[in-house]
Every structure is written in structure tokens, then in C-alpha cells.
Amino acid sequence: LDSELALRDAVELGEIETWYQPIVDLQQNTVVATEALARWRRPARGVIQPGDFIAIAEEVGLIKQIGTEVLGQACRAANALERGMAVSVNVSARQFVQDDFGQVVKRALDESGLPPEQLWLELTESAVLEAIDSAAKTFQELRGLGVRLAIDDFGTGYSSFTHLRAFTVDLLKIDLTFIRDLERSQHDRAIVEGILRLADSLHVDVVAEGIETTNQRDLLKAMGCRFGQGYLFSKPAPSVQPMVQFVH
Ligand code: G
Ligand code: G
Ligand code: MN
Ligand code: NA
């Protein structure tokens, strides 16, 4: 309750920050994008992780405000780099079902000057499913703006294929649970290969999440996976890491 009250003022007080984790082109060895990850810098309590406040924000109706703040910060940060860097922003179901979500995104693009194709929006499968009726309209609006749409945590949702049939997306982010045991598990390799083949037929790009070892990276690269993200490259950090920092 204490944290709920504090969270109500967090945006106004400038306590919501955005951290960034690079997304790497595995084939080219370059950073092409960065995922925006919300953090709450609470005075005298330090940096609070999204796992400890995003769910509260959704319950008490603050996610719209916080999400809009993160979106704005992320677009400004990506645009400030002036070198084609994309930024990938998480969108929860509650945000996505807002009537004016298309407008919120348009405003963030206009105010930051970020080219639309440099904004990726990560939707979870459950977010899309919950919003199945209003989602179609919002999807059209977002496609019209020219932003790129990604399904986050792909493979963990209920009926992943239904979403692929219903909506045209540009990217799939393979959930890190499929990447973790890639070296040991023939089974997981088969699943990831299947997702890559499917994505290829659908002309959808893939980001493998949670890459922690060079072996995982090399396997994914050999399988033809285009993009990757994980602690091997960088943990989330308070500013966008420049491309030159990428040395693996
Ligand atoms: O950064 P970390 O790995 O702790 O993120 C944990 C979870 O919080 C992830 O599932 C991520 O998608 C979610 N998350 C992080 N930032 C945001 C945000 O700005 N909005 C929403 N809706 N979720 C976020
Ligand atoms: O649900 P979403 O994919 O948005 O969540 C991203 C989360 O994954 C963040 O909390 C981020 O800190 C975490 N993450 C990013 N890279 C790695 C990694 O290599 N290993 C693990 N275990 N977590 C990671
Ligand atoms: Mn994400
Ligand atoms: Na994910």
C-alpha cells in the first residue's frame, strides 16, 4: 500500500527511469537496437525492478502513465543517437487496449522525431489475446504509423500459432527458456529450429533472448537466427550503449 501510494507520484517526481539492453545482429556483429526496460528509482530505497512494480501499476491503473513515460524516454534516447538505432519498448495488455494507444505512440514519435521504423513495440501473446477485439483496430493503426511489431516471450503463450494467424508482426522474440539449454538439449534445438523456419516462411525476423554464452550465440548464428540479446552482450544499463562497445 505504501508502495502503491509512492508509485502514484513516481512519474511526476521523475522517478521512473528507462534502462537499455542491446539487441545484436548475430550475423553482422553489430548492435542494431536496444530494449527499453523500466526501472523505478525510489529515494532511499534504490532501483526497483519492473517485476516489483509493473504488476502493481497494472492493478491500480498506473501502467498507462508509466508506459507512456517509458515510451517517451525511449524514443528520445534512440533518436539522440542519430545513427539508425532502433528501440524496442514493452507494451502490456492494459496499455494496448487503451482506445488512444495509437495516438500515444504517434505523439511519442512526433515529439521525439524518431523515425517510426526505429520503434519496435513488444507485445506479449496474452496481451494480444486479451485484446482480441480491439486489438485488430489498434494493430491497423500501429501498422499505419510504420512502427515494427514484435511478439515478446514467443512460445510461452497460450496458442502461439493463433496469434500468428490473426496478426501480422515483424519480429518474434524467442523466450529465454528455449535458449537456456540449447547446448545440451537436442529437443530445444529442434524447437528453436522450427521457430526459425516458421519465421522465415512468414518473413518475420527473430530475436533470441537470454543469450549468456558464446556457444549459445554460435549455435543460433549457425541456425540462421538474425538477432540476439542477453547477458553475453550486456546486462541492462542506465544509458544506451554505443555500438562500438560491442566486441564479442
Ligand atoms: O528488466 P527485467 O528483466 O527485470 O524486466 C522484467 C519484466 O518487466 C519483463 O517481462 C519486461 O517485459 C517487463 N517490463 C520492463 N519494462 C517494462 C515497461 O516499460 N512496460 C511494461 N509493460 N513491462 C516492462
Ligand atoms: O519479458 P521480457 O523479455 O521483456 O524480459 C526481459 C528480461 O530478461 C529482463 O528482465 C532482462 O533483465 C532479462 N534478461 C535479459 N538478458 C538476459 C539473460 O541473458 N539471462 C537472463 N536470465 N535474463 C536476461
Ligand atoms: Mn521484452
Ligand atoms: Na521476452
Automatic annotation (TrEMBL):
Q: Which domain of life is it from?
A: Bacteria
Which UniProt keywords are present, listed alphabetically?
Membrane, Transmembrane, Transmembrane helix
The parts of the chain that form a coiled coil are: none
What region holds the EAL domain?
1-248
Q: Give the protein's recorded name.
A: Bifunctional diguanylate cyclase/phosphodiesterase
| Organism from which the protein derives | Cryobacterium shii
